Amino acid sequence: MNTQIFNIVNAQSNIEWVGRKVTGAHNGTIDIQSGSLTLTDGQVTAGSFVIDVASIKILDVTDPATNAQFAGHLASDDFFGTDKYPEAYFEITSARGNHVTGNLTIKGITHPVEFNITVAVNNDTLSASAKIVVDRTLYDIKFRSGNFFQNLGDTLIYNDFDLNVSLTAKAALQTA
C-alpha cells in the first residue's frame, strides 16, 4: 500500500458559495485556512480542513455600501455568527472511490454530509474539487427559512446552499 499525505495550500484553495432565494441568488468565496488529504493507492482515504468563515466575501453585490451591509448580516447570528464561530470544520469519515462522507461543523454544530470528489495528482501536487450541498437550517441558520417562518413571499431564502470546494495540496509525507 502506498500512502501519501498532502497539505492544503490555502493561497491556492478556496470555496465558492451560492445561496438561493425566491428572487435570485448570491455568490461569493470563503477561504480555507488549513488542512490535508490522505491518499492510499491513489484514492482519498482521509482528510480534513478548516474553513475561515470570517473571510466570507460576496462577489455579486457590487455597491460597496450594500456589500458591506450584506457581509455584516452574513457575519451576524442570523447566519454564521463569526464573532463566536470564526471557523467551520470538515473531516472525512469514510471514502469509497470518489464518494466521500464526512462531518461538517458550522456554528459548533456537526452533521454528516456526502458528496463526490474529483482528485488528480501531478507529481507532488494534488488538485481536488467537490460540490457540497448544505442544509443551513441544520446549523441553526434559520433566517427567512420557510421551515420556520410563514408568509415570507419573495423574501424566502432556500435552505440549501452550495459549497464548491477547490483544493490544491502539496505532498508532505510518503510511506510504503
Automatic annotation (TrEMBL):
Source organism superkingdom: Bacteria
Pfam families the UniProt entry points to: YceI
Native species: Chitinophaga terrae
Name under which the protein is recorded: Polyisoprenoid-binding protein YceI
Domain (Lipid/polyisoprenoid-binding YceI-like): residue spans on this chain: 5-170
